[in-house]
Design goal:
8 helices, mainly alpha
Length: 159
């Protein structure tokens, strides 16, 4: 593993703890386990999140479930360059936070070879309905394809 990846993983692990404690104090924990996500009906956001956790070997991180929903809905990967691209996508979608700008700045400095991917991610975020501040827990039963169609089409309808 190269040094910049080690550094980014260390920074991500450390910062998510601090970020959760400082900025997510009033955020509700979803209280849903990986196995419970897998019990949602086929085709729903909930089921897709269960499959995401299972396939990636991830645990559900309390108070950060919405971020994982972003990955599922936007079909953004989880490699380090994808995590940085997600921050760019959220910037394009209108999110403003110190954490996001720090990750964008450090990530871009360490991984400049992905700059075109990052710029494409900003455009993708701008083209989508504002979703960065939505709470997806209430939409776990929603059909994922319909949810994505609404967010990607820039007019949000639930069917």
């Amino acid at each position: 593993m190269n040094y910049r990846l080690k550094f980014m993983l260390w920074l991500y692990d450390w910062s998510q703890i601090v970020y959760t404690q400082l900025f997510k104090q009033n955020k509700e924990v979803w209280g849903i386990s990986k196995s419970e996500f897998l019990l949602y009906p086929e085709g729903t956001l909930g089921k897709a999140m269960g499959e995401f956790y299972h396939e990636k070997g991830f645990s559900v991180m309390p108070k950060l479930e919405n971020h994982d929903a972003f990955h599922v809905i936007t079909e953004t990967g989880t490699e380090i360059q994808d995590e940085i691209a997600m921050q760019y996508l959220l910037l394009g979608n209108g999110k403003i936070s110190l954490y996001m700008f720090a990750m964008i700045g450090i990530g871009t400095a360490l991984y400049p070879e992905f700059i075109f991917y990052y710029l494409k991610s900003i455009k993708k975020g701008k083209s989508m309905v504002r979703f960065h501040d939505m709470q997806f827990k209430e939409l776990l039963d929603a059909n994922l394809i319909h949810l994505q169609a609404g967010i990607f089409s820039n007019h949000f309808l639930f069917i």
